[in-house]
Amino acid sequence: xxxxxxxxxxxxxxxxxxxxxxxxxxxxxxxxxxxxxxxxxxxxxxxxxxxxxxxxxxxxxxxxxxxxxxxxxxxxxxxxxxxxxxxxxxxxxxxxxxxxxxxxxxxxxxxxxxxxxxxxxxxxxxxxxxxxxxxxxxxxxxxxxxxxxxxxxxxxxxxxxxxxxxxxxxxxxxxxxxxxxxxxxxxxxxxxxxxxxxxxxxxxxxxxxxxxxxxxxxxxxxxxxxxxxxxxxxxxxxxxxxxxxxxxxxxxxxxxxxxxxxxxxxxxxxxxxxxxxxxxxxxxxxxxxxxxxxxxxxxxxxxxxxxxxxxxxxxxxxxxxxxxxxxxxxxxxxxxxxxxxxxxxxxxxxxxxxxxxxxxxxxxxxxxxxxxxxxxxxxxxxxxxxxxxxxxxxxxxxxxxxxxxxxxxxxxxxxxxxxxxxxxxxxxxxxxxxxxxxxxxxxxxxxxxxxxxxxxxxxxxxxxxxxxxxxxxxxxxxxxxxxxxxxxxxxxxxxxxxxxxxxxxxxxxxxxxxxxxxxxxxxxxxxxxxxxxxxxxxxxxxxxxxxxxxxxxxxxxxxxxxxxxxxxxxxxx
Length: 573
What we know:
Keywords: Hydrolase. By secondary structure, the chain is of the alpha/beta class. Helix content is 20%, strand content 30%.
């Protein structure tokens, strides 16, 4: 389509070219809309690609941005602020990926794993945009979450006309996108199915299951029966439904059926592809979404070209429609695409907002300051101390809790330990670890740990989290003090009644505990149904509960030194 029509958004004239057909190298055509200023002239383009539907993204012109917990917040309106992009004299091109929206082709599994590479499609899409008379041949990309992951997949293919990318809130390690410490996270289900405040994928009849294509009906029936032997899965109605009726939600079926890391997730892992990227990349993410922050930092370290990393403040969920971070994005693109020397590359590459002090720390690397890992030990009477417990288990009796399945109770049992009030401001920046010596009476459980900054008046803010499925407790060769890593390539049942050391990775964070504040750590095997943090998240942003009753004993004595290993930049008072 060569002609365009004018829209009026808040007094601004915007031209839109609707339902463009973009050819891929295999003959499939993708659908796209292009928005630009009223003058018919060439401009640089910012491309946004996802399976969420270009018509949904068009609501950015008419729907005021919503923040959680607004019921109008829709997690899939993520392509960016159309009016702002047009005002800055870029063309905003929003496309539907194959197998979604008005595009042709089929979409297989998660991120089209097993089908045509989405990076390959992005290459063809970008090069087509660059060749249009309304584009000056310079292309960047825009959008968060899935749109952000697509930017990295595109850049790894090295399309000649893609000059730079700016990624806010992308997902990178695709296993960790759905399984945190081996524990299934439901929010990707919401994004695909349209639940809990998300519209979901703009499905067509050509979304398919890779598992169904890969296995015979007999093999698949056996694999499904084995998956349903997991009591956590069997206790959750939605998962029973998905496994019995896989064509209801094919992509989610594939994820549920692949609970271990490996080829399924790694073949198109953006972090694995990152060394292929040599164009300028700016990565941005707000705190409070630790697993994504972990992947963002890992991706940043793997990039080879000019790069920046910005870690912003809490809370974790940006507006929908997504409008934040555009000021940074346009500074980046004005420099790398329009050639405007605005000094953006004269500034330190790493910028970190520190909660508590609310200061911004800049540096040449992450973490932005020298750190010293120090231990805080779990002690009797719910205390955290710099000194380990001197008494043996016969005197320092373990803490414990019994958690019934959430099918029969709505109470989540939580153990907590707190420091004494800090005597001086105490800053921590980096990742961390929790070493928990525990005995359980079942073959498996979840360990969910949350770290809070608790003020004098009792108000508190979540600082970081850690997750570990007990059967995924194995560590791999990357593990160092304060930086544990789990391969998640096999599940090893726990022998009931034995004391095991479970090492949880605490996701990266930056916080100053002000004088008079306490550091509080909470441990449970399920998440509380509502609290100060969960109210900021969509309703489906929780983890699969444990489906069996489990008794937990947490040892913290002279022999079993349960402790936190944390990244201090200053010495606690």
